Amino acid sequence: MYSNKDFNRWRRHPWHGLHAHSDGSAEDIVQVYIEMTADDVVKYELDKGSGFLMVDRPQRTTSSPPALYGFIPRTYCAEEVAKHCVEAVEGDGDPLDICVFSERHITRADIILNARVVGGIQMIDDGEADDKIVAVLAGDNIWGDVQDIADLPAIKTERLQHYFSTYKMIPGKKNNVTVDYVYGRDKALEVIAAAEKDYQHHFGHLHAQAKASN
After folding, report:
1. CATH code at position 42
2. Is residue 78 domain-resident?
3. How far apart are CA 189 and CA 184, in angstroms?
4. How many domains, the chain?
5. What CA–CA distance (Å, rounded) separates 139 from 114?
């Protein structure tokens, strides 16, 4: 379990200090913190304690994510998320991952953006539910009107499946990852709601403590 550190008063923690939805936004519009761009061959990940982006590992392969890659704030993959995946033993214990397609080439990470949820890919990694929500940049000139993953060219989803099925591969070792099940918008919203419920269960007390101290 991550340590219960106080929220930094100068910079909002991207996981705990932001919200999954902006005020007045539609149900399918979520706020996203971006950890990686399509050019990255180094795995960057949020340091959960400090809230800063860190180098997790250099990728062993030459593959890079085919979309912007990050997570939805105030989500957590635990018991409720695992219930949506009958083959998973538990959630992976991280914020809910999300991939965002954009027509314009966004070249930097450590940013936030609004995205429209269109579907998801059910990834199971060593028995853990590690879903990847799929979204499009809100207001995007090419993809902005897409409402469901079925409206995207099939190759977009196939590239995501290939990336997540291979990005942890090590020659000579078994890769215990499956990414076979692709689901649409409605199921994706259910998974997000489950991840928000898991977050509230595991970390809601942090916000109660922060409010009490103000």
Report:
1. 3.90.80.10
2. yes
3. 9
4. 1
5. 9
C-alpha to C-alpha distance for 2 and 140, rounded to whole angstroms: 36
Verdict on whether the full-model pTM lies above 0.85: yes
Q: In a 3-state reduction of DSSP, which class is residue 133?
A: strand
Q: 76 with 94: CB under 8 angstroms?
A: yes
- Could you tell me if residue 10 is inside a domain? no
3-class secondary-structure state, position 7: coil
Q: Answer whether 202's CB lies under 8 Å from 152's CB.
A: no
Q: Distance of CA 106 to CAs 12, 58, 68, 101, 103, Å? A: 22, 21, 8, 10, 9
Q: Report yes or no on 181 lying in a domain.
A: yes
Spatial contact of 143 and 101, defined as CB atoms under 8 Å apart: yes
Provide the residue range defining the domain that includes 184: 29-213
At 117, is the pLDDT very low, low, confident or very high (cuts 50, 70, 90)?
very high
Do 109 and 44 form a contact (C-beta atoms < 8 A)? Answer: yes
Task: Record the tokens describing residue 106, joined without a space.
Answer: 């966004």
The answer to the question of residue 175 being in a domain is yes
Rg (CA), the chain: 17
DSSP per-residue codes, 69-121: EEE-TT---SHHHHTT-TT-SEE-SSPPEEEEE-SS-----SEEEEEEEEEEE
End-to-end Cα distance, the chain = 25
Q: What is the pLDDT of residue 6?
A: 52
